[in-house]
Amino acid sequence: MWKKASVVALLATAVGYFYYGCPDLLETILQYFRQPNIQTRIQHNQNSMEHVIAAAWEAMIVLPNRQWSKVAIGVNACVDVVVSGVGLLQAVGMAPGAGRDHEVLNSKEDLKEIFIHYMDKGAAAERFFSDRDAFQMIARAASEYPGAQLYVGGNAALIGQKLATYPSLTVLLCGPVGPKLHELLDEQIVVPPESLQETDEFHLILEYKTGEKWGSTQAPQANRFIFSHDMSNGKMSSLETFVTSIDEFRPELVVLSGFHMMEGLGKDTWEGRLRESVSVMSDIRKDIPIHLELASMTDKDYMNRIMLEFMPLVSSIGLNEQELLFLTKSGQGPHADLALWKGIPDIGRVSDILLWILEQYGRSEPSSEAELTRIHFHTLAYHIMASVDGYWSNQEAAVMAGTRVASSQACGLKSVDASKVELRAPLEFHSSYSEPREKLSLNPSKPVTVWRRRNVTFCLSPVLVCLNPLRTVGLGDAISAEGILYSQFNRQQAF
What we know:
- It is a single chain.
- This protein is α/β, with parallel strands linked by helices.
- It contains 17 helices and 23 strands.
- α13 (300-310) links the parallel β12 and β13.
């Protein structure tokens, strides 16, 4: 009896402490316990928040009424050589040291410094390696490194590979496809003869695990650093072939990626090529929506030119938190003074930037000549789909499809195993950081939160983050592919 009394007294003391010292925390805890069936969830692990979300996804994710049957994708494709980043750097004689960012890599020392820089942040990044001979030496070491693996690489090829898992969909892939990549590609992918070449382009993927250490650097989460000396993809040499093939293939959707590869060639090269690319892409029929997949960049002038000249031509873009922050910095948008994201990116800030992009570079008004009406944003803990009202359907299912594949693929599984993932998204957040804002919450039994700002609708779904990720390369491309697959485009709809 006295033991029970002691427990009651201790509990009363704790409640009193929270009531007077942390009333907001107490109210949050009480709100959690007031949720329907919360006692059942506590008593039975199979009804944990992760299990509830995973089950809700299966019930709520449905394909749109009108589905894509033919998708044309270009133009970056390569073979990824995936190795342990720390292991490879040690194999080529590098020792741990200080981290430093570089726009272009010119030496092994630059590679070591930038790898440490991003490993310390747990952030993904990609750079061009300018020295051909040095790159080939590192590439040989990577191919001989124990456990090195070869995969389909390049955003276009990876998106195509994911879409090709759906048998009702025919995929056209244009890009520099060598013999090894052709062997690795799904047999449902159509590659025009003009895209085939005698040798493959190789990209090196240096992976690190959560908590992995090298010297004084420790990775806060699993991720990777990518680099290459890739001239074919760098000059987007397959773009003209891609646009010509579109006329014959007659797709319902075009997916474009690879612009980040031109950045490392220098302004004198990319300026003219970007101008040519805008002209070529303008030849695509206006009734075919175009999705642009962005990737890591460092040149603000280059990003700004893409935003001004190319982004208004596309209907949809996909990007992550690093790319979103760099985009707003390049265009002097909202929160451009933010040095970097600290932890999970603030949802209100992300919402502000997404709205600014659609209003500044998209068709947020019927009178606008821009085509951009949709953004698929993804970060580790959550995804957001922002779309101008009237142009896209099934966006709640689309954003959940993206988070579901992030949760399963990172763990190397075909479906979500709730025992191997955890919820990290905030349970409460705001619709904006600076404007009059709405307080919103996450409901595990309906894991998509929707809000509107002017004529833009936002759909957020949490990611169940894999506790022991097996492979992070290509995850963003798989996310965008699923989001595309579950989206329906409605042209010329009124607001």
